[in-house]
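Narrative summary of target 7.
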Amino acid sequence: MSNTPIKIGYCLSLSGGLAANGQTARLAHQVWQERVNARGGLLGRDVELICVDDKSDATTVAGIYEKLLSEEKADLLLGSSDIADFAKPEARVVVAPASYASGELVVPYRAAAAAR
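Modeled conformation, tokenized:
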């Protein structure tokens, strides 16, 4: 098995007017990452979350996701349905909101299983 982590990239508002919500979500994501990695990761690989602050500015989001793909080499992108508009073929899995997944909540576990 590969010892290379599965990189999951996304952005949150960690500063600016929406920071309170983003910081709370980030904490939940960190707890999830710790628990998943403690149980052996996903598909036998650790998970590395790459969270970028969008500073509560929606105009920065497209650029953030471009960098997550091109510079960070994210394996998975999490975000709103808009990320599918600029996700390139090298993005192996794009996890969209439940409303775009036949009413079923899509979480990293399922996305990783589907990528097998």
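DSSP finds four helices and four strands in the chain.
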